[in-house]
Fold this sequence. Notes:
The protein is mainly alpha-helical.
Amino acid sequence: LYSQKKYQEAYDIFTTLADRYYGCNYLSAYWAGAAAEKLKHADNARRWYKRALEVNPDYKPAQDALAKLSGEPKSGSGAGSKDGTIWDKYL
């Protein structure tokens, strides 16, 4: 759904999965943040990226996305795609 630009539907599914598997599903939390960002819901995006980092503090895509929303430079170099999510080029 995300790759089809159906961001609201993707957001709904990712948030459901992230809530259902709260302590272990950092990927769903990350993708909920990415979908929220596409929907222009920056506060929700921050919340979901932070949730992903609670579960996996070393998850670089969530670190970079949160830094971008906070106006901080990305860690490392060359990561990410032109529209903001590192995995867009794979979807």
